[in-house]
Amino acid sequence: MFGKLFKKKENQEIELYAPVDGEVIPLEEVPDPVFSEKMMGDGIAIKPSGGNIVSPVDGEIVQAFPTKHAVGIKAGNGAEILIHIGLETVSLDGEGFTMHVKEGDKVKKGDALVDVDLAVVGEKAASTVTPVLITNMNDMEALQKPEIQQVSASEDVVITVK
């Protein structure tokens, strides 16, 4: 009964840093309605210029897809982050991806998550565009996206969520 009353609120603000070098594009411009219509959550997308995907926050890996095309991270404030590498990449069944984490791993901002061979993904998938989403927006208070065009992994803030 008193658990909710005394439970520490997880509403602090966190900053998500770019998980990969590249060009930021609005989620609405991603050529896949699952992302552009925000069916899975709100966020941004990055056209990667490099193939090293790193953790955008300190947190815990809650999903490491067997097809290696996506990673889910739970941040300290409860935000659930999905990094989906490329579009229609699940069909590659791991080809072109090297996963460096597993479910349950604790990660720090900048830790290696996945290496991607952009040539393979660019040739065999619909796109290399990488959405970065907050999948539990109903649990969050606010989301801000700074106006930024080019980002460097672990250096530039791409989303602030509270």
From TrEMBL:
Domain PTS EIIA type-1: start-end pairs: 32-136
InterPro entries per UniProt: Dup_hybrid_motif, PTS_EIIA_1_perm, PTS_EIIA_component
Classification via Gene3D superfamilies: Glucose Permease (Domain IIA)
Compartments where found: Cytoplasm
Keywords per UniProt: Kinase, Phosphotransferase system, Sugar transport, Transferase, Transport
Protein name: PTS glucose transporter subunit IIA
Species in which this protein is naturally found: Oceanobacillus locisalsi
